[in-house]
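Can anyone check this?
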Amino acid sequence: TTAFTLIIEHNGEVLLVNQGPREQEGDPQGFTLCRKCYRWLVGDNARDEHLSTPRKKGDCPRHAIEGDLERALWLTHTIRSDLAVFAVALPDDIEPEPFYTTLLHTLLRALMVAFNLDEREVGGFLAPTAEAGRVFYRLVLYETTAGGNGVLAALNEAGRMQMLLDRARELLHDHDPAGGCERACYECLLSFYNQRVHDLLDRTLVLPWLQALGQVTVTPLQDDNAAFTALFAQCQSDLELNVLQAIRDRSLPLPDQAQVTLRDKEGTPVASADFYYERGRIVVFVDGSPHYLDYVQSADERKRRQLKALGYRVVVIEAAAIEKGLNELADRVK
């Protein structure tokens, strides 16, 4: 029986949106910007004090009036990191929002405990879904630092998911002789960072679901035919085709891209990689006989030193030593 579905996405894109200060009642109203002096106006009285009127002078150095304000602005920020997306069917006779909100924060706090993470290293949110069945939300967990620390990507490894679920049960006072708290407390689910949803958190909704899971076995389901076909079509030599096939035959992760132009910090092209792994920033060069020429070798060495200085990890697979190059690649991507 499938208890839930887990999707691991490497180098996924997360759009973070700040809708403004929380209102006592109703939705946030966004931020206000003065287009005269480009100052953000935060606080109940900030706008009134900033604006000039026929009767008073405001504190805007350029004498802004009402028409100079841009209201209801949202601030956005995009990060790229590993994502873990959980699709969990809603148990019978339970309201979706309290259940999924509690499960989300249970998993987040269990991650911190199980893998010794700081509260600021992982985040999460609920993503509404219109799919058939009884899944009303997807739980999206993401690492907040660029590139991440690999914790989420490792959840499909043997024992890692079970460790996470075991810690989750412990957090929710499973087997607590005193019975645990009534709904949620600062020893289990509550924290400063999730205070906006304190009224939704209820461990009694999620603990029975976790207990019913028992021992969990993670079964990978991955169809890489489409990805392989796309990469195969981009190969520019028989040697590249052979290397790509060898990568697949060894059951190594497929590259994310082929024929990628790599640039320096100013956007100037440095080199074209035959294959590229976004996770780990691994650049793969497949060198055939033209690369044995002295002047080509000199140019290759210069470009690859520059890439290493930019933080890329370079793997060279030579026609005369394919197995050696593949072994090095295996060490990098596993």
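Reply from J.R.: I decoded it. Residues 5 and 259 are 33 Å apart (CA to CA).
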